[in-house]
Every structure is written in structure tokens, then in C-alpha cells.
Design brief:
The complex is a heterodimer.
Chain A (H helix, E strand, L loop, with lengths): L2 E3 L3 E5 L4 E8 L6 E6 L6 E6 L3 E5 L2 E6 L4 E6 L8 E8 L5 E3 L3 E6 L1
Parallel strand pairs in A: 2-11
Antiparallel strand pairs in A: 1-3, 3-8, 4-5, 4-9, 6-7, 7-8, 9-10, 9-11
Chain B lengths: L4 E3 L2 E4 L5 E6 L6 E7 L5 E8 L2 E4 L8 E4 L6 E5 L8 E8 L10 E2 L3 E5 L1
Parallel strand pairs in B: 2-11
Antiparallel strand pairs in B: 1-3, 3-8, 4-5, 4-9, 5-6, 7-8, 9-10, 9-11
Chain lengths: 109, 116
């Protein structure tokens, strides 16, 4: 079966750094996405990785290791508005997006 | 440039009734996806459509559920004879290119169906 694993919930402090991990087992791989979803709102795109390595975009970075079936999202200089769920999704060999259940990130002052 | 528009945002139905959820993709987008999300669970793919064509409906339940994306007008997800287990948030997403081109998806804010 296909599986995406990420922690259910994480807590971090405003101004700090947090790393959200995602591991996957899928039938094929055509890239990995990270989306942010505030409660009751639409998911919004954060990043896409298809090659190994780190992609940096402002305060957010995403890393991929295809051989390990592993990715992480790194958030720096955390702000209260970063409190949200972070969704990891993998595009499988049929170009279907397989989604993790999301990691709820709680930022404390 | 309006984003993906879904309506209704909230819908309450009694068991056995029909639910119709509408999705207008972003301007210029001809590819539409429907997903279902249960509390504390990930998004589950239901169907992928292009204008007037169903490309992939492998995530759709075989009975009671149908989807369309006509040449004119919004995409519609139709659930007939709803049951309590259909209660969920239904998200629509659109893209200007086919999924093989691996672009980002643009999501609507979802339609929350409650079946009494």
C-alpha cells in the first residue's frame, strides 16, 4: 500500500526553528509537495521537490532524499501566523497525489 | 483574479437527500480535482477532470457519487442518497496544466457537508 507518515502535532516557540519530517512509501515517485493549511481554509502551496537536496524559499526550506523516502520542511524565525497544519504529499507513478494526514504546528509566544 | 470558488461553503442534508457541490476553477484553468477530507485525516483523491472529460475517477465510490465539468459552468460533485459517513469537507483544486506536468494545485476553501 501507499503510505505517507508525518507527526500529528508539534509545538515550537515564536522566533525559533522547527523541522517537520515526512516519510513515504509509494508506488513510484514524481515529486513531493508541501502545503500549508490554516484551520478552515484552503491548502496553499509551499514547495515542490523532485531532486535530492535542499530548496530554500525565504523562511521556509524543503529537503528531499529519494533513496530514504524522506523529506522535511524547515521553518525559521517562526511567527505566530505560522500556526497551521503542514501537509506532505507525494505524486505517485500514476501522477496521483497521495497525502499525509498533516502536522499541526502550534506556535507559542 | 479570483481564486478557486466553491459553494456552498456549508451544506446540511438529511439522510437520503442529494448534495450538489460546485467548483469554479481559477480563470484559465481547465483541470479540476476533487478531494475529500475527514477530521484528522489527509486529503483523499476522488476524481480528476478536464473540460467535458473525466480523466481519473479511481477515488470515487462506485455508487451514489458522480462528477462533471461541463464546457460551460462550474464543476459539480453530486452525492445522491447521502449517508452520515458522507459528512466531510470536500475540496476542489484547479491547475492550468495536466497533472503529468506536476505543477502546484490551487485549492478552494472547501464545502463542508453535514449529514443529519
Amino acid at each position: 500500500g501507499q503510505n505517507i507518515d508525518q507527526p500529528t502535532e508539534m509545538t515550537a516557540t515564536e522566533g525559533a526553528i522547527v523541522q517537520i519530517n515526512c516519510t513515504y512509501q509509494t508506488s513510484g515517485f514524481n515529486g513531493l509537495f508541501w502545503y500549508q493549511q490554516h484551520a478552515g481554509e484552503a491548502p496553499t502551496f509551499l514547495s515542490y521537490n523532485v531532486l535530492d537536496g535542499l530548496e530554500e524559499k525565504g523562511r521556509f526550506s524543503s529537503f528531499l532524499s529519494r533513496s530514504k523516502g524522506y523529506s522535511y520542511l524547515l521553518l525559521k524565525e517562526l511567527q505566530m501566523k505560522d500556526s497551521a497544519s503542514y501537509l506532505c504529499a507525494v505524486l505517485d507513478s500514476n501522477y496521483q497525489l497521495i497525502w499525509g494526514a498533516g502536522t499541526k504546528l502550534i506556535i507559542k509566544p | 483574479n479570483a481564486g478557486v470558488m466553491q459553494n456552498p461553503r456549508h451544506l446540511v442534508r438529511r439522510r437520503g437527500q442529494e448534495a450538489r457541490l460546485r467548483c469554479s476553477p481559477m480563470k484559465g484553468h481547465s483541470h479540476v480535482y476533487w478531494y475529500r477530507q475527514l477530521p484528522e485525516e489527509g486529503l483523499k483523491f476522488m476524481v480528476y477532470l478536464q473540460k467535458e472529460n473525466i480523466i481519473d475517477e479511481s477515488g470515487m465510490p462506485k455508487e451514489r457519487f458522480s462528477a462533471e465539468f461541463p464546457k460551460e459552468g462550474p464543476s459539480i460533485l453530486r452525492i445522491q442518497q447521502v449517508v452520515r459517513g458522507d459528512s466531510a469537507a470536500y475540496f476542489c483544486a484547479s491547475s492550468p496544466q495536466s497533472r503529468e506536468n506536476t505543477g502546484e494545485l490551487f485549492f478552494g476553501e472547501g464545502s463542508r457537508l453535514t449529514v443529519l
